[in-house]
Amino acid sequence: MDHARMDHSHMNHAGMDHGGGGMDDMCSMSMLFTWDTTNLCIVFRQWHIRSTASLVVSLLAVVVLAMGYEALRSVSRAYEASLAKRISALPRQLQDETGRQGHIIKAVLYALQNFYAFMLMLVFMTYNGWVMIAVSLGAFFGYLVFGQTTSATKDNACH
Fold first, then answer.
1. pLDDT confidence of residue 145
2. pTM value?
3. How far, CA to CA in Å, does 36 sit from each of 12, 59, 123, 128?
4. Could you tell me which of 31, 30, 134, 56 has the C-alpha nearest to residue 40?
């Protein structure tokens, strides 16, 4: 027998678990648009849709997650405006130090926004129509609730 190639034909795979249940319980990975929710997993293997109830709860969770992204953008805008107002009220010698500290916090908020946007992109890339609609509804409701002072023109490249 060639040691570089292993022969598994004699092994019994019936009792082995290859990732959380039988073959009927594996996450489906579609690279094409679909409305099918059979074995749909959203980003993580643990977020596995197994029933109509779990689908509805998951879609509501996706709406709330997308709304959360708009809330984070709103918090970031409010912090930026507050920082600019505080800096302009300070004496010149304190403006640079406060501006540097504020810039670090703005950078953290910016990184969080980008991480969040890419995670939402991964949710959207399930290619499932129901999930895509949920992300869009979350953006809609998030903008209604948190975007009163924001232009409707999108300036983020990802989400």
1. 96
2. 0.76
3. 33, 14, 15, 7
4. 30
